[in-house]
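Q: Structure for this?
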Amino acid sequence: MELKTKIDAEDGKQYLIITREFDLPVELLFKAYVEPEIVEQWMGTKVLKLENKKHGGYQFETSDANGNVVFRANGTIHDFVPDQQITRTFEMENTPFAVQLEFLEFEQLTGDTSKLSIRIVYKSVELRNQMLQLPFAQGLNMAHNRLQTIVNKLK
Amino acid sequence: MNLRRDVFQAIADPTRRAILLLVASHAMTAGAIATNFDTARPTISKHLQILTECELLAQQQNGREIHYHINAKKMKEVADFIEPFRQMWDDRFNKLEAVMKNYQTKK
């Protein structure tokens, strides 16, 4: 089966490319990135600020069930061309990870399909590799937390 | 058989990840592992079978008992793969697509 989302991460390079084709017209795909209430739905995070323009900024925040902030990220928008591209920085607050540069390119394929390519540039090769492995580490962490919950129930 | 994909299917399940973490500290029997979960024993056995088949766990015969332990080499291999990263984005984009399709029909 052809994978819908592809990751191109060449060895020894400090960038990676994420590509995905959508069964959506490019206008709708782009809208999913600019309408705060839509971003909230699919990113699963609260949008505190989203200024879709050159020199604009954005800030996202996610809280757990108890209202504690577990994730906060922000960035600056460097370029904004409707239905075509967004160039922005992305930084996770209160983490050791350095800011990254993101080039998002939106492309119409047919009337109902579109393609998104994201090139993410990291501060170093090491940081890129670390970020690539993060979801795996988080998966294990989540399992660990779940285990902790189970163990606590036994006590 | 696509072994690489199977390994990621194996670790995609939260119960199986919990089993891996449990066994990571020391080798355990299937019975001892099962007591840590609310799940029925046959379900845990099935999870252990899957983890063993993709070599994340290894079995060791100690007298009459079989102990399960982590296959560190395989775990390391998996950790180096970027498949979980890809899956994270894939899930995210699937959601985006679903949200926008819904948005489109509502209009």
